[in-house]
């Protein structure tokens, strides 16, 4: 392998082929610090041509490649295994905004651009790029595309796949497919773009993308709403869609424990309500009208919700600071849970009509099997995506509780499947869920996926061991 590494150094420069353990360490451990892999080297190409050259070298020497963006993934999809035979290909140096086409409402970017960088570039051009995640300051758009990330604005704008018009991809042979077309309509054969988005780097390496831009809303309205149960939340969502139509851009569900953990570990955030209720909704409207019209629309919605006895209490943010406080409460749930200790996470999606029954049924099943277990339930109710996390009983042995992860996953995922849902909504499969995938995908689906993988990566060098 020394000859291979020397060729890599010649291709991209010695400084960008990392072989010392200290230099490699940040690229080998997952974000939640649950697993650490080993690699032959970490390589950091500067452009698409260098990515292609490295892939050709890997194909020639049969060296596996683990593509990596910001390494913020949650399913162990961006770190290597323990064999030490793979290279980690970090795309962090591919970080340029290539073009903003204002007439076409698109932005063309390198895959290593931080999501926040793209949001800011769009804003400076008086546009909105609506993908919004808690990790937007550290995740890259290549990673977002590889997992088809969702976030808080899917209800109105769609997943990352729906925000992307074109891709640039290096194939497993080291060829460069230039699909950077900013077209809304292109019905010329198989949709390679949609196939590669969500593939987690197993079919090719995304190096660039053309993304949709939107006009910036002129005003926004934010409300934090207290409810007794999820059935009320689902009914409120239906009402909000009826009254607000496309102006409804955010609808987040938060259970009582989620909010309590945030206030416990982040006391700097202002409490919204004096008394706790079982569930809350964080609702956002975005309009192209003035603030007064937006406020009236939001007030009318909440008044109607009170009249229909769908809500217990509600607070409308009267300033940008209050709105930011509301969103900080929502975005801090994962960090608060991490401070609380270890937990078992689930990223699931369900038909919205089934969510209330699923939560009640699964809560009951878990508490029967694991008494006093605590459910931290929150997520994007507007598009049916729940982060249904299970924490150990208060004061319990956390490591001992985690030994039951397989049993807990089985209860949650079986219930998800029973209610017509998916075991991965926006985080992907990686290695964490690949065995689970075999339980819930039909043999026909698995056969088709394997055929696609073999066709595009016959030597299995592209992120091997992930998904399948």
Which fold name fills CATH's third level, the topology of the largest domain? Uridine Diphospho-n-acetylenolpyruvylglucosamine Reductase, domain 3
SS summary, helix count: 18
Kindly report the average pLDDT value: 95
Specify the overall morphology.
globular
Total number of strands:
18
Major sheet description: 7 strands, antiparallel
The structural class is: alpha+beta
How are the strands of the largest sheet arranged?
Answer: 15-12-14-13-17-18-16
Please name the CATH architecture of the largest domain. Answer: 2-Layer Sandwich
Q: What is the domain tally?
A: 4
Strand content: 15-25%
Termini separation (Å)?
27 Å
**CATH class category name of the largest domain:** Alpha Beta
Helix percentage range: 25-40%
Uncertain regions spanning at least 5 consecutive residues: none
Q: What is the radius of gyration computed over CA atoms, rounded to a whole number of angstroms?
A: 23 Å
Keywords: FAD, Flavoprotein
Organism: Undibacterium flavidum
InterPro entries: FAD-bd_oxidored_4_C, FAD-bd_PCMH, FAD-bd_PCMH-like_sf, FAD-bd_PCMH_sub1, FAD-bd_PCMH_sub2, FAD-linked_Oxase-like_C, FAD-oxidored/transferase_4, Oxid_FAD_bind_N
Family: Belongs to the FAD-binding oxidoreductase/transferase type 4 family.
Brief descriptors of the model:
7-stranded antiparallel beta sheet, 18 helices, Uridine Diphospho-n-acetylenolpyruvylglucosamine Reductase, domain 3, alpha+beta, 5-stranded antiparallel beta sheet, Alpha-Beta Plaits, about 475 residues, Uridine Diphospho-n-acetylenolpyruvylglucosamine Reductase, domain 2, 4 domains
